[in-house]
Amino acid sequence: MGGAGGGAAASGTRSLDQTPTWAVAAVCAVIVAASILLEGLLHHLGQLLNKRRKKALFDALEKVKSELMTLGFISLLLTVTGRYISRICIPEGAANTMLPCRLSVHSEAKEPEGHGRRHLSEDPSYLFSCPKGMVSLVSADGMHQLHIFVFFLAVFHVTFSFFTMSLGRAKTRIWKVWEKETCLPTYEFQYDPSKFRLTHQTSFVRQHASCWSKSTILLYVVSFFRQFFRSVRRTDYLTLRHGFIAAHLSPGTKFNFRKYIKRSLEDDFKTVVAISPPLWASALAVMLVNVHGWHNLFWFSTIPLVLILAVGTKLQAIIAMMAIAITERHTVIQGMPVVKLGDDHFWFGKPRLVLHLIHFASFQNAFEITYFFWIWYEFGLRSCFHDNFELIIARVCLGAVVQFTCSYITLPLYALVSQVNTHLHCMLTFNHQPTLSINKTNTSQHFCQGDN
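Structure tokens predicted for MLO-like protein (452 residues):
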């Protein structure tokens, strides 16, 4: 009996009936304390958002908590069903197809007593051997690695959500200076409605409606490069602001357009943090085609890049087309040029389609980066997964660029340009008197003063 206990101790595979109660209680205490701390932090963050009337951000937080609950349930299922899944046997020929790494003959020779068994399989509760010519569908060690992958998904989902919103808000802070200019008397004098000018003399038209804008191809080429260099200029912001107020509010209204854009960005963020079934399907597709020799992960990593660049180009082209439309309507304007609002500027006349493309690109890119760090943690940086190391480094750098571009440039640009459509995002009130009703349930006061 003593020999059996010693053998168990030597192999390091003691079960709970042979583990000191103080050790079990200590580990459980740490896990419970960490869980309570996390739940408390999320609860206080929710209270803070409610106190500051950040309904959109509060809804986004609730969605993040819901996604974490889903991932937690997936982790629980892996834990409960792991032993039974590892006992499902499949033919060895089927098990040797579509491998992420080259099949190693030496590793098979080192484990004659059990096919596909790793260190977790040494536990007596996992002792199971498939018939000859058969192997486990997913080994016990493989189930444990999947369990860790789910944990990585949860951590990186929260991390990427935080950085996406932080970078987006940092971008809108730049527009705060321009918004304050509209409260100054010099602004009203500069854009005096009694002044008449030719359309081509306005700075907005000069920047966007040049000779190159007469060619559709050149317009999109210039728009492609413009998204990287001052994607939103002062004249763009002020002109879109003026067109928005002229279309939806009474003349002379002291409206804080930047604050409204910030609320719209928060509403868009609420959509971006959600993980829908199609996004889960795209993630599973990435895992499915990660076959040795195919190099599909690199090509999959280019999809978010292409989408983000295409969306950014389209948004810049919309601004240019609005400037061209001003020159086509008349030759003389009064005060600041008024842009024409409408959904027809967007693909298929649906602005939300652009947001869904941003959502897909952001999730796909974040998933691929998470996948890289999980492989690094589980198998090492120079593992068989990364046989073409230079290609892997290029893919990770590409992912970092895409994530920054999406969060700091494309998403804020969409929040601004999407306001040119005919539907508003929330209910605006001035001095507690409603002036117009719109689609979303948000209620807030957007004055020229009190910007934050």
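Residues 71 and 400 are 24 Å apart (CA to CA).
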